């Protein structure tokens, strides 16, 4: 099995987080707030490397800087994330115990927290890879989420995967070997036929799986314009609906 993430995830610059950790019922979460009051929030769903991975915390802080209460819960509920020392031959078995379509209970806990403790009125969701699949699932199931952005993660084995409840943006890398171009074409064709809400699909030239969450100092120079473009597109989509 090919590695689903082509960047060296073990070689990352240090990151000084701007937010703090909280306990929400049975879930730990990382939260960052803007400097002013807002009733808008965004849930960030991490990839296989979990809620403590520096890249995902950078994304939380980045979104908060655009005026959103931003939270990344531990959707693995205290179990081990995938580690850089793990063997990819074991990945399929690991995924059986970390199903991105089994996030509904935790999502409801976090939505309740945002509404009751943070006074959030509109809530969006973004997710990366594993988290992108979770976003796709939640946008089919949970009408409380005003808008979603799924980055290089889609549900592939359900005929109901095209009936989105609210606006959803799908971001892909052109050279992502975990999601074929044919799968992207099929997604677009089926959404045109079945989807009754706003959606968008965009493929970024030359980009591999996992490209859009890198911190600036970890970007390859040739990729930087596309990473920045994807992030701007992500924020613009959220701002349009949340």
UniProtKB/TrEMBL annotation:
One Pfam family here: DLH
Main localization, broad class: cytoplasm
Localization terms from the record: Cytoplasm, Cytosol
Gene3D superfamilies linked: alpha/beta hydrolase (3.40.50.1820)
Coiled coil: none
Any single GO CC term annotated in Swiss-Prot or TrEMBL for this entry: cytosol
Ranges for domain Dienelactone hydrolase: 27-240
Molecular-function GO terms, alphabetical: hydrolase activity
InterPro entries the record matches: AB_hydrolase_fold, CMBL, Dienelactn_hydro
Similarity annotation: Belongs to the dienelactone hydrolase family.
Identification of the protein by name: Carboxymethylenebutenolidase homolog
Annotated organism of origin: Nestor notabilis (Kea)
